[in-house]
Design a protein that fits this description.
The protein is mainly β. The protein has 4 helices and 27 strands. Residues 1-20 form the signal peptide.
Length: 399
C-alpha cells in the first residue's frame, strides 16, 4: 500500500514544466493552406447518456430515447485483471463521462470505479463491448475524476477533479496493443488546475482545453476560487502537453454557491462543461450558477448569462421552477441557467442538456431543443451527462 502511495507522489510534479514551449502549429489537415475540409458527421440522431445506479448504465439512443446500444458491467465477458474487475463491480453508481472516440468505434467513459475505453462495434459482436483500456479510480488521486478526453497518439487525458495544488491532468497510453493494466504508467502529470470538470481536444489549435478553478473550489484555500479555462499546447513531436500561463483565462469575479446551498456554504462557483460551438472558434461554458461564452481567437469571455442563451441556445428552458434562493446579502436570486452538468450543440442547431435538480447533483431527464422547440427524453432516470455521439463539425476527435 505504501509503495502505491509513494508511486503516486513520484508523479506529482512535472519535470518538464520549465521547458521552453515551442511554437505549436495546427494539425496539417486543418491548416488553411492545405484547404482540406473536415467531413461533417451526421445526421445528428445519436445521443450517448449515462444513467447513475448500481450498476450504472451507458446508452446510445436516438432523439426519442429509443436505445440502439447499451453497456453495463454484466455485458463484459472477457477475462479482466482482478483489480479492474473489482472496480467494475464496485458499489459506485457513477456514469460521469461519455465521449465519442476512434471514429465512433469506441466510447471513453468514467463508469463505476473506472476510467475506461469500451469498444462500440455493434456490427461485430466479437469485439463489441470489449474493454481495451481501464484504470481504477479507487485511490486518493482519481477517485473524484469527472472527465477524460482522447489525445493524439493513443493517449488519454484524465482530469483528477481534486482541490489540491498537485491536481490537474494525468495522461496515459491507451494503445490497443498494450495488455490491460489496472495501474498503467502515467506518461505525464500536468498540475495546477483544480476541480476539472471539462476537457476538450482542439485539433485546429493542437491544444487540450480544460475547465476548472484556479484555487480550491471547496473553500479550503485562504483566497477565493474563480472559474478558469486553461489551454495546454500539444507537441506532436514529443506527445507532451505544455502548461503556460499565457493560456489561462479566469472569470472576473469569484462567486459563492450560497444561493443554492445556503449562507455559510464554503464552496465557490466552478465550471462544469466546456462545449465547442460547431464550426466556430468558440466555447460555451456552464458553471454552478450560470453560462458564459468564450472566444478563443481573442482570449476573452464575450457573453454571459441570458445573452448566451439568446445567441447560441434559443429555446432553452429551465427544467424546474424552484431554482432560486437567498445570497449572502439576503437578496433573493434566481438561477435558471445554473447547474448544467452537460450540454452539447449539434451543427444543425439542435442542442441537448442535463440540468441538475435544485440542491441535487444530477438531473432526472435529458432536455432536447429542436428548431427552438423543447422536449424531455430519458425521463425518470438519474443523469449527469448526455452528449451527441459524433464528431462536432470543426472539432474532430483524434483519429
Amino acid at each position: 500500500m505504501l509503495g502505491s502511495v509513494f508511486g503516486w507522489f513520484f508523479y506529482l510534479f512535472d519535470p518538464l514544466a520549465n521547458l521552453a514551449i515551442p511554437p505549436i502549429q495546427p494539425q496539417a489537415r486543418l491548416r488553411p493552406e492545405n484547404n482540406v475540409p473536415v467531413a461533417a458527421e451526421g445526421p445528428w440522431e445519436d445521443i450517448i447518456t449515462g444513467h447513475y445506479g448500481v450498476p450504472p448504465l451507458i446508452r446510445i439512443h436516438d432523439r426519442d430515447g429509443i436505445v440502439k446500444w447499451k453497456f453495463e458491467r454484466d455485458d463484459v465477458q472477457q477475462d479482466l485483471p482482478k483489480e479492474i474487475r473489482n472496480c467494475l463491480y464496485s458499489s459506485a453508481n457513477d456514469a460521469t463521462e461519455l465521449k465519442w472516440m476512434r471514429n465512433g468505434t469506441a466510447v471513453a467513459a468514467i463508469y463505476s470505479s473506472l476510467a475506461l475505453i469500451i469498444n462500440h462495434t455493434p456490427d461485430n459482436p466479437e469485439t463489441d463491448k470489449l474493454i481495451t483500456w481501464a484504470i481504477c479510480r479507487d485511490n486518493e488521486v482519481l477517485w473524484n475524476a469527472h472527465t477524460l478526453e482522447p489525445l493524439p497518439g493513443d493517449r488519454m487525458a484524465v482530469g483528477t477533479t481534486g482541490q489540491r495544488p498537485w491536481d490537474g491532468v494525468l495522461v496515459y497510453n491507451t494503445s490497443e496493443a498494450l495488455p490491460l493494466d489496472p495501474s498503467p504508467p502515467i506518461l505525464q502529470n500536468v498540475t495546477g488546475l483544480r476541480a476539472i470538470h471539462g476537457l476538450i481536444w482542439d485539433e485546429a489549435g493542437s491544444m487540450l482545453w480544460a475547465a476548472g478553478t484556479d484555487l480550491a473550489a471547496d473553500g479550503s484555500d485562504p483566497e477565493p476560487a474563480r472559474g478558469t479555462i486553461h489551454a495546454y499546447p500539444f507537441d506532436e513531436a514529443t506527445g507532451l502537453l505544455h502548461a503556460d500561463d499565457a493560456y489561462v483565462y479566469r472569470l472576473d469575479e469569484p462567486v459563492r454557491q450560497d444561493v443554492e446551498w445556503g449562507v455559510g456554504f464554503t464552496w465557490w462557483v466552478g465550471l462544469h462543461d466546456l462545449v465547442p460551438v460547431p464550426n466556430q472558434r468558440k466555447f460555451l461554458v456552464s458553471e454552478d450558477s450560470s453560462l458564459h461564452a468564450f472566444d478563443i481567437t481573442t482570449g476573452r469571455f464575450t457573453e454571459h448569462h441570458g445573452a448566451v442563451v439568446d445567441k447560441y441556445m434559443p429555446g432553452f428552458r429551465v427544467t424546474t421552477n424552484d431554482r432560486h434562493g437567498v445570497d449572502g446579502d439576503g437578496v433573493l436570486q434566481e438561477q435558471p441557467l445554473g447547474d448544467l452538468k452537460s450540454f452539447s450543440l449539434a451543427p444543425d442547431g439542435s442542442f441537448i442538456y442535463v440540468q441538475s435538480l435544485w440542491q441535487k447533483y444530477r438531473g432526472n431527464h435529458t432536455s432536447l431543443v429542436e428548431n427552438g422547440v423543447y422536449r424531455a427524453i430519458n425521463e425518470g432516470l438519474e443523469i449527469y451527462r448526455s452528449r451527441w455521439f459524433g464528431d462536432i463539425d470543426g472539432w474532430p476527435k483524434p483519429r
